[in-house]
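Troubleshooting log. The previous structure file for this entry was overwritten by mistake, so regenerating from the original sequence record. Sequence copied from the archived sheet and checked twice against the printout by T.R.
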Amino acid sequence: NNIRQTFLTDGGNETYASTMDYIYKVKQPQVDIFDSTGSGDAFTAGAAYAFIHSFTFEETLRFASALGIANAVSKDVSSVPFNKIDEYKNRVVVSAIGKKMKLIDVTPQ
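Regenerated output below.
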């Protein structure tokens, strides 16, 4: 099996995600949704962006969720200004389910 990461979203409800054999639950903040069309695509684009820019998995979940939320509260479909992501990113709550991943700083010193 070559699948390393999975994401299960359900609109404004909790998201479940896994990487390797670590599982996470993501709680979205309460927002007034204008139109959720394209929010799943926005989430996927956020996850791809985070992967390319070497975000940790938890950062990926916050970023992708924030992008999906920012899309849902906007009148425009899949046209979220980058600065709107920060409005929601820190309000997304990521919780490990089961065993917890240890992060190691591998930045050259």
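The CA atoms of residues 22 and 101 lie 7 Å apart. Archived copy saved in two places this time.
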